[in-house]
Design brief:
346 residues, alpha/beta, 8-stranded mixed β-sheet, two-stranded antiparallel ribbon, 11 helices, 10 strands, disordered N terminus
């Protein structure tokens, strides 16, 4: 019996490793850039702050999704290597949106954002992370709070151009995955190569554009603003087919309405080395940091997926995934647009 349990454990472990680490290959062709612009605006929905045991709600007042419940179970900020919530490689199912559009997979994700990874897994999109950082602060005008969509598109384009250039010059050879087209010969040129995704997100609040807080003090200042000024997330997504260079892009927006309690402090008992405890007044940022939440890695310091933040949310106009950095609706729309553009070039 013990041998059977050990053998089963080894079998499962080997399956997960094989799904998480695809083989490496190279495929380099000089790209060019053609752009089709798409814009998306999320429909209104209200996300309930109720617990998972609450009665079912209508679509206009739905609860937080499986994505939220899963993301709050993991240790925030830690990487997860499996493709999906169920440890099943979506490339082996008929739910993969890339294969549905006859596009190569896995997707090349030019982002290290853990929430974008969670969202892609929930969408059953297989992906391979390939990040080549740029200095985002040198791009765009952050004083123009009326055009945040322009800023996030400029940053996402710069990320895409830099990553494609690095691939073209052979500087990513050892990091590129094998695509579906490598194992399944096809006459469709757009089923070869890769689809690359880059994006960016900022927060707008009180006529300001907010990015990732540079300090704990700045994160606290952001949270204080949210009590009286509902922040909006503005995110961009760019998809490029490599090596054709055909590109589609779009933006998405959502607004979060917080309760006034978001800026309150509460007494928290903290243990000390001698076994005793002392009570300390802590605000929301202090309590998030106490749980090692990566608040400084989130645009505007917003972490709606964290239960400490969720209890202070009144409603969200938009979608939860849009707030978390990647609109599912926009991604699916852009995949369709990309397929149409590629078919027009046959």
């Amino acid at each position: 019996m013990k041998f059977h349990r050990v053998a089963t454990f080894i079998h499962i472990a080997c399956f997960n490793i094989a799904a998480a680490y695809p083989q490496v290959t190279t495929h380099l062709v000089s790209p060019f850039r053609r752009v089709a612009t798409v814009s998306s605006s999320s429909s209104l929905c209200r996300l309930s702050a109720s617990t998972a045991s609450s009665p079912p709600t209508s679509p206009s007042k739905r609860q937080f999704s499986t994505l939220h419940r899963f993301s709050t179970r993991i240790q925030m900020g830690r990487d997860i290597t499996d493709y999906s919530l169920t440890n099943i490689n979506p490339a082996d199912t008929n739910e993969n949106p890339l294969s549905q559009h006859s596009l190569p997979f896995p997707l090349i994700l030019g982002s290290a954002s853990f929430t974008r990874k969670l969202i892609l897994r929930e969408m059953q999109i297989p992906f391979h992370i390939l990040v080549r950082p740029i200095d985002e602060k040198t791009i765009g005008d952050r004083s123009d709070s009326e055009r945040p969509d322009h800023l996030v598109l400029m940053v996402a384009r710069a990320k895409m151009d830099h990553l494609v250039d690095m691939i073209s010059r052979g500087e990513c050879d050892e990091d590129l995955p094998t695509t579906s087209a490598s194992s399944t010969p096809t006459d469709n040129s757009h089923e070869k190569g890769w689809v690359i995704l880059t994006g960016d997100q900022v927060i707008t609040c009180a006529d300001q554009i907010l990015e990732k807080p540079t300090s704990i003090e700045e994160a606290k200042r952001f949270i204080q603003m949210y009590a009286t000024n509902p922040p909006s997330t503005v995110g961009s997504v760019i998809l490029t087919h490599y090596p054709s260079g055909i590109t589609v892009e779009g933006t998405d927006r959502a607004t979060i309405y917080f309760k006034e309690t978001v800026c309150e402090t509460i007494p928290v008992a903290t243990p000390v080395p001698d076994g005793a405890t002392f009570t300390k007044e802590m605000d929301l940022v202090d309590r998030l940091l106490q749980e090692d939440a990566p608040i400084l890695s989130c645009a505007g310091g917003l972490m709606i997926e964290h239960p400490l933040v969720r209890e202070h949310i009144d409603r969200i106009d938009g979608t939860e995934d849009s707030v978390m950095g990647l609109s599912k609706t926009l991604v699916i729309k852009l995949l369709g647009e990309l397929t149409t553009k590629l078919n027009q070039t046959k």
